[in-house]
What we know:
This protein has helices at residues 2-9, 13-32, 41-61, 63-69, 75-83, 94-122, 129-156, 159-179, 187-205. It is an all-alpha fold.
Amino acid sequence: MPATINAFQVGKPRLAEAYANTAAIGVSDCEKSFNGKSPIHADNIITHDIALILLAPCECDDKLITQTCSKTPYPAQCVSYIKANYKSNDVKGVAGLGIIMAQGFQLKAQAPKDILSTMLSAGKRPDIRIPIIACLGTYNYLINTAIPEAIDAFKLGIPRLAQSYANMASMGVSDCERRFNGKSPITNENNITHEIALILVAIAKQL
């Protein structure tokens, strides 16, 4: 927040916007990490609302983002994820927003992948070793193959193909979570990546 204040003071609203986005996403991720058992739910709602208020002036100037995100399952999160990427300032069409959201999936998917890789290499939780290996393979495929293909599809003007890969990401994350039979060590991370995948599907459908 000090950096946000400084950005406003020196006349750099886009930089302030980026920091406000970081705050909104951070608070949302904090709340999700409790998996419905948050002891600070009310406080998180307040701070998240304040972060969105900070974004309001920029949202009004960018109708493309708000209109596109309003047609997704998670409008507020969609806006936050897209605006967290500084390249969103230069996007001219829905396909460009799809590319940014796909890149956001790649970024967020790195967290569960790293957790699973660390657990596997350290020999932790041998009772769930098989689903760890399976989910690790899923995330590797999504990060390195499926999502790059979706990005290429957006660039080439083939939205149905991009939608197909986005659906693949959504189903892959869901299958990953189910493999653990209630013992998943990455439920929070899976929830986040699944949310982004569903947003990506909704964006592709608009093309």
